[in-house]
Every structure is written in structure tokens, then in C-alpha cells.
Amino acid sequence: MEPIIMAGKPVAEExxxxxxxxxxxxxxxxxxxxxxxxxAAHVYKRxxxxxxxxxxxxxxxxxxxxxASQEEAERALRALSEDSRVDGILPLVPFPRHISRMxxxxxxxxxxxxxxxxxxxxxKLYLGITPWGPCTPRSCMALLDYYKIPLExxxxxxxxxxEVVGRPLTLMLMGRYATVTVCRSRTKNLPAITRQADIIxxxxxxxxxxxxxxxxxxxVVVDVGINSVDGKLVGDVxxxxxxxxxxxxxxVPGGVGVVSNLMVMExxxxxx
Length: 272
Known about the structure:
Blueprint: E1 4-5, H1 8-23, E2 29-35, H2 39-54, E3 58-64, H3 70-82, E4 88-92, H4 101-105, H5 119-127, H6 135-146, E5 155-159, H7 166-175, E6 179-183, H8 190-194, E7 199-202, E8 220-223, E9 227-229, E10 232-234, H9 239-245, E11 248-249, H10 256-267
Parallel strand pairs: 1-11, 2-3, 2-4, 5-6, 5-7, 7-8, 8-11
Antiparallel strand pairs: 9-10
Helix pairs in contact: 1-10, 2-10, 6-7, 6-10
InterPro entries: Aminoacid_DH-like_N_sf, NAD(P)-bd_dom_sf, THF_DH/CycHdrlase, THF_DH/CycHdrlase_cat_dom, THF_DH/CycHdrlase_NAD-bd_dom
EC number: 1.5.1.5, 3.5.4.9
Keywords: Amino-acid biosynthesis, Histidine biosynthesis, Hydrolase, Methionine biosynthesis, Multifunctional enzyme, NADP, One-carbon metabolism, Oxidoreductase, Purine biosynthesis
């Protein structure tokens, strides 16, 4: 039986239709905040601004040079937070090494935080009192729901425990009564653990971390990893391994990443 390819495009199109209805006749402004020259952050920013424009959302692009001081960055972010014309702010990471992320993020209005990056919002997510988690984990959940992958009672192996994806996604999955085993890239006997999974989710950023022999026949694979190999984007799990062993899987590219931008826009609806 051919596996289900959990493509992001139809999920994104459905979200886009709903957002167009909600944003119709509304005046909203999304600000991106970037410090430094990180190429991936610049690519993501351009993609976000394009998505916002397609939905009729006004944008503001605040960009500081790599050498901007901690004080300059804090002043700029604080000014955005205090600007009543700005409805949402997305700080783009990583910041330059000399910038204290936690100290900088303290200047962000939690109500304008678009990616659950402020510690107050992270605390609310931990307590289960907010639906506005980070955008990439929410994209994973949207894909699982759209393709009707059951979570309750299922054994999910979460590979990767970073603050952007692994940690918040673990909380979301447990909130849906999944049984979650958290692994790291250095976990001993990782193949033995992943072979027990009904659902494998990998968010490490290491090509071919999950190989064919690590996937149980019929498991669902959600591949969040995005890696560049010989000029091509690949995930943490080889596409060949997914096709051979999985009953359903997200492709890379074309899976989780397609949905993430729209999750940023969806977060803006809390300002309506």
C-alpha cells in the first residue's frame, strides 16, 4: 500500500482561506525584527513578508547590523513593542553571539509575540493555558490533524528537544494524550527506541539521522529537519526510508515548512 504523503500545500491553502475571511476589512501590521547577517533568517524574513502581503497584512521590516550593541537592539525592540500601530512582532533568530537573547526578549510585549518566544508565553504554554505555541510545532500538529493521524494513546518518539520545536511540541503532544518519549541526537540505542514508535518526529537538523532500519513498518514520520546537502534541501530522514517503511510521512521540502509561515499569520488573529 502506498504511503500517504503529508504535503503541506493543501493544509496551507485551507489555513489561507480561513485567514482571508478573518482578515477581510481589518487593518493589521506585522513587524519583523532582525539583528545581523544570518542568511537563513533573511530568507525566512522575505518569505514572511511575502506571505503577509498576500493576505493584505501591512508589514514593517526592522533590521539592525551585525555589530549593533545590546542597548541598540533593546531600544529598537522596545520601540516596536510600544508602537500602537504594530499588532505583532516576530524576532528572527539566531541573534549575533554578543546579544543576550533573554535580555533582549524581555523588551518584547508578550501580547505582540508571534512565536511564543517571550518567557511569559512559554510559561503559559507549559501550563496549558494558551493555544498560541511556537509556529513550527503548531504546523506539525496542523499536519497531523489534517491527515487524520490519531494521537491519543499513540507512542510518539520525539527526536530533538530544542526550545524552538522539540520542547513545545512535546507539550502539545502530551496535551493530546499521546505517550511521548523524548530523545536527543546523542541518545544511546536510538534505533531501538525509534523502532517502538507509532509516530516518529525528528527536529534535530542532521541529514540521515533516522535511517530505514530505525523506522517500524507502518509508522508515521514527521520530518521537521531542514538541511542543505549539495545544494539540495533534505530532512533528518531520507525520503527513500520514508517511502519504504512509513504509512504516512511529511516530505522535505514541501511538508512542515510550507505551513509555518501561515501559522505566524494565524497568531495575528488573537489581536482581532
